[in-house]
């Protein structure tokens, strides 16, 4: 009987492990096209940050003007889930579909 409970628990444990292993902590903003996890565009992410939906992470060396902009994956997931629960559209205010 204990062997059966171990085998039924294994898929749940593996699924949880897969979520933590496969998802990166930070995801680069795509230069064009959708990002590889959420499928949202660069302009959507910048609009979402402007509208206060999420705060992006910016990395640059001291004295440099340019750098990297990254999406914090877990915070993004939480924000998108909240938007879905609240029935809000995925379009930030100025990007709303007509």
What this model shows, in words?
This protein has helices at residues 2-22, 42-50, 73-85; strands spanning 26-28, 57-59, 68-72. It is of the alpha+beta class. Strands 1-3-2 form a 3-stranded antiparallel sheet. Strand 2 and strand 3 form a beta hairpin. It starts with a helix and ends in a 13-residue tail after the last helix.
Short description:
The chain is α+β, with helices and mostly antiparallel strands and 98 residues long. The protein has one domain (24-95).
Flag low-confidence runs: 1-7
Distance between the termini: 59 Å
The total of beta strands comes to 3
**What's the arrangement of strands in the largest beta sheet?**
1-3-2
What is the overall pLDDT average? 80
Number of helices: 3
Would you tell me the structural class of the helices and strands?
Answer: alpha+beta
Radius of gyration: 18 Å
Shape: globular
H/E element order: HEHEEH
Helix content: 40-55%
What is the domain tally?
1
Main sheet summary: 3 strands, antiparallel
Strand content: 5-15%
What does the secondary structure layout of this molecule look like, with pairings?
Layout: H1 2-22, E1 26-28, H2 42-50, E2 57-59, E3 68-72, H3 73-85
Antiparallel strand pairs: 1-3, 2-3
